[in-house]
């Protein structure tokens, strides 16, 4: 048993079952044993590959999309350029390189990164050493400025709870002990006001997921966009409304049972984009339609960008570029599985590539 597993078993023995959200927080962010605190999960040698690690085109196009929003809003100065969960810092580095030619953009920006893992903060500092960047613990701490933000595969890593509908309410899926090992069970039926709207589309036995931290993190961002201007591009796998168990554990590019090896596998859930959009409602911020990543990148000109890059390449490097373009956009690869949601001030148009 790993040390984190021993700690979790001891805690459950003493205090009873824990929620999936508590389990995820410990597995991902425990200071000593947490997945993001202890390892570099990205790339071929890690557990998964994210879009910015596949090709520079991803960060470049997102950067130019945000820069166009900034120009369309009258080039406000100063403004906050923000990334949630920047991983290795690759996306932000590509974004900054691509926007260096946009007159006034770099002069007006203040770069803020929201990153929970001290290990990844150090990697980000290294990747972005040419730039002046600051870290904030949460979006609440961002200054009162226009916010231009990107978040790729951030919301899928946030701790969520799962509930199974029952004739008398919702029973939470909890993690307890089965013969001394971690196992799933159900709590007693309770009222869940936050899930009242799911009574329409669910039946007894159905499972729904609730990621409250997503709403807490997004609200101050939507509030700034609505009040001061800006735009947010949120990219993740998921759909407009999620139904059923989407919890997934990945280790060395393979799926593993989520309660095995706590802290050693990446844990994610599909993002419920409807929940994200609803959580910004009270701020008056507008949101785009949820758009497949492949469609969004094609609209932003990824094919033209790939053609331009291809002119300087041949052999293996050219094959890699062609494969990267396909991987990011093709419906059978990441093109359809990943979706994009844009946030923007209600008096403006949605970011380029997205529709209202
Ligand atoms: N955006 C990057 C990395 C995605 S992985 C990419 O596309 O490659 C998720 C990132 O979010 C990691 O950097 C992780 O450490 C960070 N993270 C996870 N939970 C967080 C939280 N609650 N607060 C801040 N950062 C978090």
Write the layout of secondary structure elements.
Layout: H1 3-15, E1 18-19, H2 20-29, H3 35-38, H4 51-54, H5 56-72, E2 79-84, H6 90-99, H7 105-108, E3 109-114, H8 118-127, E4 133-136, E5 147-152, E6 161-166, E7 169-178, E8 181-190, E9 207-210, H9 212-228, E10 230-239, E11 248-251, E12 254-256, E13 266-268, E14 271-272, H10 273-279, E15 286-287, E16 291-292, H11 293-299, H12 302-310, H13 315-329, H14 334-337, E17 338-344
Parallel strand pairs: 2-3, 2-5, 3-4, 5-10, 10-14
Antiparallel strand pairs: 1-7, 6-7, 6-9, 7-8, 10-17, 11-12, 11-13, 15-17, 16-17
The structure holds S-adenosyl-L-homocysteine.
Residues 36, 42, 50, 52-53, 85-87, 91, 114-117, 120, 152-154, 157-158 line the site of S-adenosyl-L-homocysteine.
Protein described:
There is one protein chain. With 356 residues, this protein is an alpha/beta fold. Helices cover 37% and strands 24% of the residues. It has helices at 3-15, 20-29, 35-38, 51-54, 56-72, 90-99, 105-108, 118-127, 212-228, 273-279, 293-299, 302-310, 315-329, 334-337; strands at 18-19, 79-84, 109-114, 133-136, 147-152, 161-166, 169-178, 181-190, 207-210, 230-239, 248-251, 254-256, 266-268, 271-272, 286-287, 291-292, 338-344. Strands 2, 3, 4, 5, 10, 14, 15, 16 and 17 form a nine-stranded mixed sheet that branches. Strands 1, 6, 7, 8 and 9 form a five-stranded antiparallel sheet that branches. Helix 5 (56-72) packs across helix 6 and helix 12 (302-310) runs antiparallel to helix 13 (315-329).
């Amino acid at each position: 048993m790993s040390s984190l597993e021993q700690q979790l078993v001891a805690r459950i023995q003493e205090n009873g079952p824990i929620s999936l959200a508590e389990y995820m927080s410990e597995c991902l962010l425990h200071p000593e044993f947490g997945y993001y605190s202890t390892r570099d999960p990205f790339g071929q040698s890690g557990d998964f590959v994210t879009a910015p690690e596949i090709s520079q085109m991803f960060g470049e196009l997102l950067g130019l999309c945000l820069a166009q929003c900034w120009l369309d809003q009258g080039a406000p100065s100063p403004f906050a350029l923000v990334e949630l969960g920047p991983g290795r810092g690759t996306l932000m580095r590509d974004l900054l390189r691509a926007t260096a030619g946009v007159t006034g953009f770099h002069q007006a920006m203040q770069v803020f990164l929201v990153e929970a893992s001290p290990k990844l903060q150090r990697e980000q500092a290294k990747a972005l050493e040419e730039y002046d960047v600051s870290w904030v613990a949460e979006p609440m701490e961002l200054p009162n400025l226009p916010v231009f933000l990107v978040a790729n595969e951030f919301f899928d890593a946030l701790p969520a709870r799962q509930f199974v509908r029952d004739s008398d309410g919702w029973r939470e899926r909890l993690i307890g002990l089965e013969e001394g090992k971690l196992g799933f069970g159900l709590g007693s039926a309770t009222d869940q006001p936050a899930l009242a709207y799911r009574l329409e589309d669910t039946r007894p036995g159905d499972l729904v997921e609730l990621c409250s931290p997503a709403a807490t993190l997004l609200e101050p961002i939507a509030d700034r966009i609505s009040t001061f201007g800006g735009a947010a591009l949120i990219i993740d796998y998921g759909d407009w409304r999620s139904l059923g168990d989407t919890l997934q554990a990945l280790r060395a590019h393979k799926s593993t049972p989520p309660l095995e090896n706590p802290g050693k596998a990446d844990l994610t859930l599909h993002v419920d984009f409807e929940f994200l959009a609803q959580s910004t409602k009270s701020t008056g911020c507008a949101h785009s339609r949820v758009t497949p990543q492949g469609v969004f990148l094609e609209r932003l000109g990824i094919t033209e960008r790939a053609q331009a890059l291809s002119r300087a390449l041949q052999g293996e490097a050219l094959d890699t570029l062609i494969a990267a373009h396909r991987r990011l956009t093709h419906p059978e690869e990441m093109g359809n599985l990943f979706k994009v949601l844009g946030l923007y001030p209600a008096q403006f148009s949605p970011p380029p590539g997205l529709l209202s």
